[in-house]
Specification:
single chain; five-stranded antiparallel sheet; five-stranded mixed sheet; 19 helices; 10 strands; about 15% strand
Length: about 525
């Protein structure tokens, strides 16, 4: 009996064992049977994978192998290849060709589109998809509990690092959204969010922190977004009503809330210039005659505003209205106190002036209040700070014009992105990151948030194939179409070429690393 016939015999026996298991489970609970079947199905999947590898190996040629540039390699021996799948860690033997002056090759690896490590694409994709949403330790725990597989956090971190390498290239080649799916206002937004970093060991450890010292060191992740949106004309009174007098939603609004179209988010640790340079290229690809207005929304950070104007000079810079309004609340808290009944009416009046484009009047009022004899020094300081903020940002606060043109005036998209793209994953309790580790994670997390996961996985596999084998990856029919084809794989009489076995060994990291990731 050949090895492939032996595997088929074991598969039949395994399936019969599963039938007997179900038949004899008369008094078992549904949960007990389901768990038992799941374990047996994993074992069955492992044996089926072994059969697949055995058939492909036995069918492979063993005379000579021609490399690029016409180099011919003679067959040398069978070489073992490890393959760690969701069913467990397997190993199979395949032909190896070698010539001392030309090196060696295993052409079956190329036929199977294998990577240069032992991990299956499905295992990597599953680990990474979970890893962009939760800690690597939790991912490893899920694999252990559900699949009985041992994955270290370092192995998962290495998977993320390797499979994130083509994200930039993916977005460079990705076509712009169809014009028919776009709106007439092209909007970009940018903001920053701190990420806790691994602290470098100090030469001498301080017993007590000095003023300004912190236990945690953070580095800014610059978050950007680009999308289009349909104009939504409003009046200052409309915005005041929504902020200060929200009515219960009994009857649907005549003007429904409009959502961003084809929103694309990004986050990077490479700095503002790198982030905004990339954003400018993405925005340029969305240009066309359908775009009537270009709007850039940011908070009042001068460094960010300057770089937006540098990299996107044809965009109208708008100060996020919510940030501006918060300064009015700061002034009101200083003047009246946070519990005073005078506070809200004063802010409402000033907000109406702000939305009506009368920021000059607001600055004059703040300056006047700061000069009153009964104004305290602490109040005077806050009032002047708010006035200075409004004066500096006056060119970006023509809210009456923005509302009349239907522009967005709040940066809620990027505020939300800072939270769910960066904070919700990178600032979990006790988490610390290396620069490369968090950059790789943020790239794959952006792919997932932008709903490009499946497209990117196909692109990455094609790029990896090109790098490893020097030729484009051939187009593959679906497995269903291949199964329906009336083809057969002959089994050689010499069964020694089909040696296979399961290796129950611990999983090691892809690459050696002295520094374990904290996440």
């Amino acid at each position: 009996m050949s090895h492939t016939e032996q595997i088929v015999h074991e598969l039949h026996a395994e399936f019969e064992s599963m039938l007997d298991y179900v038949k004899s489970s008369g008094h078992a609970t549904a949960d007990q049977v389901e768990r038992g079947l799941f374990r047996r199905l994993l074992n069955l999947g492992a044996r089926l994978m072994l059969l697949f590898f055995a058939l492909r190996s036995e069918h492979a040629a063993r005379d000579t192998h021609q490399k690029a540039k016409g180099i011919v390699l003679p067959y040398l021996a069978e070489r073992r290849r490890q393959y760690f799948s969701i069913f467990g860690k397997l190993a199979f033997w395949r032909p190896y060709f070698y010539r001392p002056d030309a090196g060696g090759a295993s052409p079956l690896d190329q036929d199977l589109a294998l990577g240069d490590d032992c991990y299956s694409d499905l295992l990597c994709e599953l680990a990474e998809y979970l890893g962009v949403g939760t800690t690597y330790a939790k991912v490893a725990d899920c694999f252990s509990r559900l699949l009985g597989l041992d994955l270290s956090t370092q192995a998962i971190s290495d998977m993320v690092a390797e499979d994130a390498c083509d994200v930039e290239a993916f977005y460079r080649q990705k076509a712009a959204p169809p014009t028919a799916s776009e709106a007439s206002i092209l909007v970009i937004q940018a903001d920053g969010k701190g990420v806790p970093m691994v602290r470098q060991p100090a030469a001498t450890r301080k017993l007590r922190l000095s003023k300004g010292d912190k236990h945690n060191r953070k580095k800014e992740a610059v978050v950007t977004g680009v999308y289009t949106i349909v104009p939504r004309m409003r009046t200052p009174a409309d915005v005041i009503a929504s902020l200060f007098h929200p009515a219960p939603k009994i009857v649907p609004s005549a003007q429904p809330r409009l959502e961003p179209q084809n929103k694309q988010l990004w986050a990077t640790m490479a700095g503002k210039d790198a982030a905004l340079g990339r954003l400018a290229k993405q925005a340029a690809r969305r240009a066309g005659p359908h775009i009537e207005h270009r709007v850039a929304l940011t908070d009042g950070a001068e460094a960010l505003q300057e770089r937006v104007q540098k990299h996107l000079p044809d965009f109208s810079l708008v100060l996020d209205f919510i940030h501006a309004d918060e300064y009015l609340w700061d002034a009101a808290n200083s003047l009246f106190g946070e519990t005073s009944a005078q506070r809200t009416p004063w802010v409402e009046q000033q907000t109406l002036s702000l939305l009506a484009g009368r920021q000059v009047d607001i600055v004059s009022e703040l300056r006047r209040l700061a000069t009153l004899t009964d104004t305290k020094a602490t109040q005077r300081k806050v009032l002047n700070q708010v006035a200075n903020y409004f004066e500096r940002n006056a060119p970006f606060m023509h809210y009456d014009q923005y509302l009349a043109q239907g522009w967005p005036i709040a940066s809620g998209v990027i505020e939300g992105a800072c939270r769910h793209l960066v904070k919700d994953r990178c600032e979990l309790s006790g988490m610390r990151w290396t620069l490369k580790g968090v950059e790789n994670l943020l790239r794959l997390r952006a792919v997932a948030v932008n709903n490009h996961w499946e497209d990117y996985q196909r692109f990455h596999q094609q790029q990896r194939y090109q790098r490893l084998y020097g030729v484009p990856m051939p187009q593959q029919d679906s497995i269903e179409a291949q199964v329906l084809e009336p083809t057969s794989i002959p089994v050689p009489e010499n069964a020694s070429t089909g040696r296979l076995f399961i290796m129950p060994v611990m999983v090691k990291p892809r690459t050696a690393s002295a520094q374990q990731p904290a996440a």
